[in-house]
Amino acid sequence: MGTLRNNSSATNITIATEEPDRFNQEAEIRRLIATIAFWLIVTVGILGNSLVIVVVKTIRSMRTTTNYLLVNVAVADITTLLFTAILFLILTTNIPIRSRVLAAFLCKFILTNTVSIVTLLVTALTLTMLAIERYHALVKPMSLSGRLSMDYISYVIAGIWLLAITLVTPIFATFDWDSEMRYCSHGKAEHTMMIYVDCLIIFLTLIPFAVISFCYLRIVYGMYFNNTVFGRNSERCDTQEETNEKRRLVTLLILLTVVFFIAFIPYGILLILKVSKVNHTYGHLQIGSQYLTLLNCSINPFIYAFQSSSYRRAFKLIIKKMLCRDVSYELSELLEMRTRTSVRSV
């Protein structure tokens, strides 16, 4: 009997040690898969958005106000991906931060996602500007008010970044490193920041969504119901090719906007929960929202390639050029493409 008890004890011990090992192995596999997925999304996103910038910079016919705004979205996406990658490295390497100055810098710029909030604001404001520009170009083509010109596009883009940075400055200013508690804190301004972040999320979602919805609903109504856009009642006569290009652009911009808001809403909820310090309720939300945000930053070039024949051709041309293939004929053909409308290049 004694031997049997000893065997039973040994078996119990074996099971008790194997179970945590199996759990740890599964956790390691999940962590490895998540890490590979993270770096794959970041790498593809940075390369894809960089390709968008190179295309618009290299090919003259792609230099339109619409494409410059899309470049602004690409710059914001690259910035988000880079700063998220830095945050990922800090959190996974567990390198001790002994410098008070470095800790304060990381707290203000990296650990609290202030830069990502800026870039999200930039994207939301740029998508709003794109909707307004398309509304005036298609619904009111004869009116010069509200139309963007190449002379002013740089000022518009600079204004978007300045407004976004200004809106996030209060968060940046109040966050600081608490040496005693060893974490980033708002200090005494915590309650004020809770209210401010809530208002900022509303500004980032409701106002742009309302403006964008109005603009695109008016465009869709004019396209399919009263024929004031592309139809017999339109103020301007376009060729069928130009009309098809404009339709594709409207579809492209609506798709970009829908994808952005789907990706942002969970992140906005997460920000509110974090600032409100609602603990132990957003573990899965945090992971899901971060990956959605990263996917949104990485997927836009694929949307351009899928929806726009001009971007498809331009991407192929630049990639061939990077691979040292002779593209002189294709390049001259693309450079001579006439942008007969403000959307011809998209």
TrEMBL record:
GO terms for cellular component: plasma membrane. SMART domains: 7TM_GPCR_Srsx. CDD domains: 7tm_classA_rhodopsin-like. One of its GO terms (molecular function) is G protein-coupled receptor activity. It is found in: Membrane. Signal peptide: none annotated. It holds the Pfam family 7tm_1. Keywords: G-protein coupled receptor, Membrane, Receptor, Transducer, Transmembrane, Transmembrane helix. This is G-protein coupled receptors family 1 profile domain-containing protein. It is a multi-pass membrane protein. The chain crosses the membrane at residues 32-56, 68-90, 110-132, 152-173, 193-217, 249-273, 285-306. Residues 48-304 form the G-protein coupled receptors family 1 profile domain. PROSITE patterns: G_PROTEIN_RECEP_F1_1, G_PROTEIN_RECEP_F1_2. Belongs to the G-protein coupled receptor 1 family. Its main location: membrane.
